[in-house]
Every structure is written in C-alpha cells, then in structure tokens.
Write a structure and sequence with these properties.
4 strands, 23% helix
Amino acid sequence: MIKSVITENRGALSHGAVTVREMKLPTVMSVRNAMKILKNGMKVKVDGGKARIYILN
C-alpha cells in the first residue's frame, strides 16, 4: 500500500492526479528529474499542501 505519490510529469487534471485526490494521498506532481534524484528504498516525506518533498535518509 502506498502512502504518497510523486510524479515526474503530468498535470493536476491527469488520471493519476484525479486518482490520488480521490484516495486522499499526499501528492506532488511534475517534479523535474524525480527519477534521477529519488532511488528505490529512499525514505521521503511528501507535503502535498506545500508541494515539497523531504528526503529523510
């Protein structure tokens, strides 16, 4: 089960955005270079209200 969503592309009206909004998950959309910066196993905190991602480890 996921706790939050970070996407590298797509906008606020995309299917993914609508789905996570319905599931009430913290989400940050359109993060440039997210796939290069974030790696498997990293712990992050997503603040969707402020559109911020905090790397915890």
